[in-house]
C-alpha cells in the first residue's frame, strides 16, 4: 500500500502531463462496479446513480447495467449499456440524480448551471431519448405536479403531447425558442399523473451541452403558467430506452442548484 502510494506520488511528480497531483486529490473514491438490478442505486457525494428499470416488465427480453466511472470535483462520469426487445413503452430511466439543493422553491433558485458531454454507440434501430428530467411539487418533498424534460437527443422516440398533427407528429405549444444556446420546440401533455413539459431541440442531437437549466423554468413560469412557488423536488439526467441496444457514455456531467 505504502509502495503503491509512493509510486503514485512519484509518477505524478515526474510525469509532466496531466493529471496533476491536485486532480488526483480531487478524484473521489467511489463505487465503479457494474449494477444491473431494477432499483439499484450508487451514491457518490451529491450525486446518485439510479438504475430505475421501471418498465422492464414490459420487455419480452433485455437488460441494462450501469456504472459510475469517476467523480472529480463536481464532475461525474458514468456509463450505461442496455438492450431491450418487445413492448411499446419506455423500459427504464437510468440516470444521475442530484441530491443537493432540491426541495427548493423556484423563486429561491438563482441558477442551475450544468454541463453534459456524452456519446452513444448503438446497433440497428433504437428508440430512446437522452434527457434531463425535472419534477416540481406544491410542497417540499411532495408528490409531482409538473414534469419538465429537456431532451438532448431523440432517437425515433417522441415527447408526450396533448395534440398531434394529421401526420401523426406531436404539435408543439411553442416553437423555435432560443434557450441556453440552442433552439427548442416545447410540447405539453400529461403522463396520467402530472403535467409534462418537454423541450426538444428543433434539429439534431446535442452531445455537448452547457447552460443554465433555470432558463427553462423561467420560460415556463413566464409563459406557461407554472407558479414560481412550485418546489423543484427532483433533478435527474439520463436515458429513456424503449427498444434496441446501445451504450451511453457520459464523459462529464455536472449540475448544481444555486
Ligand atoms: C421555426 O423555424 C423554422 C426554420 O427557420 C421555420 O421553418 C419555421 O416556420 C419556424 N416555426 C415557427 C412556428 O415559427
UniProtKB/TrEMBL annotation:
Recorded family membership: Belongs to the glycosyl hydrolase 12 (cellulase H) family.
Domain of life: Eukaryota
Protein name in UniProt: Glycoside hydrolase family 12 protein
Keyword check for Transferase: no
A Pfam family reported for this protein in Swiss-Prot or TrEMBL: Glyco_hydro_12
Keywords, sorted A to Z: Carbohydrate metabolism, Glycosidase, Hydrolase, Polysaccharide degradation, Signal
Alphabetical GO biological process terms: polysaccharide catabolic process
InterPro entries: ConA-like_dom_sf, GH11/12, GH12
GO molecular function: cellulase activity
N-terminal signal peptide: 1-17
Amino acid at each position: 500500500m505504502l509502495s503503491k502510494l509512493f509510486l503514485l506520488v512519484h509518477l505524478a511528480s515526474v510525469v509532466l502531463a496531466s493529471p496533476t497531483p491536485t486532480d488526483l486529490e480531487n478524484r473521489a473514491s467511489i463505487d465503479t462496479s457494474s449494477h444491473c438490478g431494477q432499483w439499484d442505486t450508487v451514491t457518490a457525494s451529491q450525486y446518485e446513480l439510479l438504475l430505475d428499470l421501471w418498465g422492464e416488465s414490459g420487455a419480452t427480453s433485455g437488460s441494462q447495467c450501469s456504472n459510475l466511472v469517476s467523480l472529480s470535483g463536481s464532475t461525474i462520469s458514468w456509463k450505461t449499456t442496455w438492450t431491450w426487445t418487445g413492448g411499446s413503452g419506455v423500459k427504464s430511466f437510468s440516470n444521475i440524480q442530484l441530491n443537493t439543493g432540491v426541495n427548493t422553491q423556484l423563486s429561491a433558485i438563482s441558477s442551475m448551471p450544468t454541463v453534459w458531454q456524452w456519446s452513444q454507440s448503438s446497433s440497428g434501430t433504437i428508440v430512446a431519448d437522452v434527457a434531463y428530467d425535472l419534477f416540481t411539487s406544491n410542497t417540499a418533498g411532495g408528490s409531482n405536479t409538473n414534469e419538465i424534460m429537456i431532451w438532448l437527443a431523440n432517437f425515433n422516440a417522441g415527447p408526450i403531447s396533448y395534440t398531434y398533427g394529421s401526420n401523426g407528429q406531436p404539435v408543439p405549444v411553442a416553437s423555435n425558442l432560443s434557450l441556453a444556446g440552442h433552439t427548442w420546440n416545447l410540447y405539453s401533455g400529461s403522463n396520467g399523473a402530472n403535467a409534462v413539459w418537454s423541450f426538444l431541440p428543433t434539429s439534431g442531437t446535442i452531445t455537448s451541452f452547457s447552460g443554465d437549466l433555470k432558463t427553462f423554468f423561467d420560460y415556463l413560469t413566464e409563459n406557461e403558467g407554472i407558479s414560481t412557488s412550485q418546489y423543484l423536488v427532483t433533478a435527474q439526467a439520463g436515458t429513456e430506452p424503449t427498444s434496441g441496444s446501445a451504450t451511453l457514455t457520459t464523459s462529464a456531467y455536472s449540475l448544481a442548484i444555486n
